[in-house]
Amino acid sequence: MADVGQLEGKSAGLSGTARRSAGGAALRRTLTWGGAAAIPLFFLGVFFAWPVAALVARGFVADGALDLTGFSEVLSAPRTWRLIGITLAQGLVGTAVSLLLGIPGAYVLYRCTFPGRMLVRGFVTMPFVLPTVVVGVAFRALFTTSGPLGSWGLDGTFWAVVAALVFFNYSVVVRTVGGLWERVDPRAAQAARTLGASRARAFFTVTLPQLAPAVASAGAVVFLFCATAFGTVMVLGGQGYGTIETEIWMQTVQFLDLRAAAVLSVLQLVVVALSLWVSGRARSRQERALALAPASANPQPLSLRADALAIAVTAIVAVGLIAWPLVNLLASAFRRSGHWTLDNFRALTGTGSGNALSVSVYEALYNSVVIALYAALMALAIGSMVAFVVSRRPASAAGRRTLGLLDAAFMLPLGVSAVTVGFGFLITLDRPLGLGVDLRSSGWLVPIAQAVVAIPLVIRTVLPVLRAIDPRQREVAATLGASPLRVALTIDWALALRGLGLAAGMAFAVSLGEFGATSFLSRPETATLPIVIFRLISKPGAENYGMALAASVILALVSAAIMMLAERLRSTHAGEF
Amino acid sequence: MTLSVDNIHVSFGDLAAVAEVSFTAAEGEIIGLLGPSGCGKSTLLRVISGLIAPDQGRVLWDGVDLIGAPVHKRGFGFMFQDGQLFSHKSVAANIEYGLPKRRFSRVERDARVAELLKLVGLEGYENRNVTLLSGGEKQRVALARALAPAPRVLLLDEPLSALDRELRERLALDLRGILRSTGTTAVFVTHDQDEAFTVCDRVAVMMGGKVLQLDIPERLWRRPATAQVAEFLGYEAVLSQDPFHGYAPCDFEVVETLAAGGADTLARQLGQLDHRGEPVDSSALAALTQQPRTGGEPEQLAGTVMDKLFQSGRAIARVSVPAVGELTAALPSGLSVAQGDGVRLIRVAQ
Known about the structure:
Chain A is mainly α and 577 residues long. In chain A, 72% of the residues lie in helices and 2% in strands. In chain A, the strands form three sheets. A two-stranded antiparallel ribbon of chain A has the order 1-2. A two-stranded parallel sheet of chain A has the order 3-4.
């Protein structure tokens, strides 16, 4: 220490009062944040953890004692192993094909520039927001005996299901891999070229390893979606075709064997937990890799000759796999017995031939919109609360770990199949928390289940926006005299609004198309549009089939319109999906 | 109304970021915290603002300990390196953020915004979009925003570092003018000594979490307390630690070129080389050069020109000086030297 200048003598350290008031502030802070976390945790506990836990327990416990005979019975049945085989094959093949087609797509649509790129991007990512039932119906219309590919004899087969799953998941691969490809530094591959590597060698030795985290992350998510697909498989899978997911539904609804269904749910959870673990690891690696890569603002123009292969693959997918089924669906909806007609749409005011439905399709649309509105509001409220809490950066390691766990807990519904959620609701919510209210007859279960499914999407949309806020923005607001509440309102909330618009749209669209949980919980008179479509396509008769097509067109249009509206509200930071 | 920092300690894990730092700023005084990156100066600034809590020590305003008081109740303004303007608000909305609606009427707030914009030289900028401002304009708005609530103390964390040099030099002068005219007590963190010396009344040189010396710029430059401070300030040669004796760049001027072999002869005469022609120990040279000389004769050194360059508007020579090392010496106009020439240097202006 220099003795020059006005250095003061050292006096006693921290005063007692200061210590106490600092402690009080810390306590107050903990209570505030604890409170903000408690509401979502309570919601998740009652409407997710408890039903799922009760379901799992049912597989292990019989008459109050541990009983594993359910497992031995189910696992010794050859049918179970066939279903597990189909589930895994469906997941693996669906993932492999999606990656194979999606990586060239990511290159063309994110790494290269060409006129109309944003339009094509918007088009190929559209299938992801289409309800699963609609996708199923669209491919059914393609493969059915009277359809354009009827002669291939694929209706009701494994390959029809895989085609629909690839249609659905192609955009996941393109968006995830493309999002990284856009940002990796192209100079690494350029350096490889100057060292004498061919284009192919530079791609396989430099670019692909750079993309590996995104490819792994997309692969894990796509596997999850393919292995647990429900609506698509229910609509497309023929007699005898089934996966663990559809079998849970069959055992519950058709055979009334809740115990076997519970055992299968446990099996399903194991599959899901494994792929979530892989996805989590891949994502943490990706976040590290992204931190290293500078944002590259120099995309290359598409070259018709050099990029011919990627362009060809992408064009074939866009036209053959995405546009064709949708155009075919639209055209088929306007045809009946070989004539162009509006009959299919006119019939939507009725309940189908042989009274297939309890409500008209338009009533079902109304139900869907109302229920989805409630579900989206709940998901938005709970999801943004979680995102707000999780976006904090506490100084203590324990605080950070707690937030990490909270974040992970709310991602679980994304992985746990909607069927499991719906089934869990059925067996627990007759007397929620021991209260004498049977939620099952109140009509509230459907929107709540849909909210549980939509919450992870809301969090994943809002969280990146909140995390992107420089913490110094909050600090500078505090130094200008803003209280923590004012900081939250004028900084966090003001900036998160951009993400909330997109989140609201996503939550609404997801709820609108939700089929898995709803199929367990919905009652005939309040059936939603996806339920009605499924009923129509499962019943015989050209009229019912035609109505299913027309109803699918309407549901697809409504969903697409909502997503387009939401995308307009998207900020550059928002969203992982 | 003084700001006192009393024996502040902050550590991150095992690393002591700030250790036993104390100083007092008088009302209206501008204190500089100068040091290399990672020396703890920004951490100290965040402690004063209340953004982080120290492990030990007090921050006093007018004798009252503020530790435990939350950031927003301290009345200390803070200006970040990159301004941290609120991009979702206009210039005016940014500036009036610190003027709460319940205490200031619309008219008062508009008047204050206009007054501050005039002060920072951005009259009429009220409704501009902050994302479209230039770097210098952004910092001016950030300064206006920080000054709007008339903070008791303004804390500035490298506010000019992100700007290019010419702008930085001009804004440093403006910044001092504005802080002086508003009578604001300020603590100014920077790693650039020219900036610190331009803006601040007194400057604390920080290294390894400690304040090594706190003084007015002139004395700091002319009388560094330790070799460490001297080296940080850019001293080229330190001859002895205690008492400190060293040479800053351009302490010397080339006065003449010497005939071939003349440099060695003169170096021997001046005591830089011993009788065998070996360079003497630098502290021995220091003792020699500090002896009182007859007739106010300036300190002299002999050396060999290594290179000639042009820097900051003047010609300079890099001279290899036996027993000292390489020095930067001013070259008077009209004197032509070439690489390898022996030269005589005299110490100028002390």
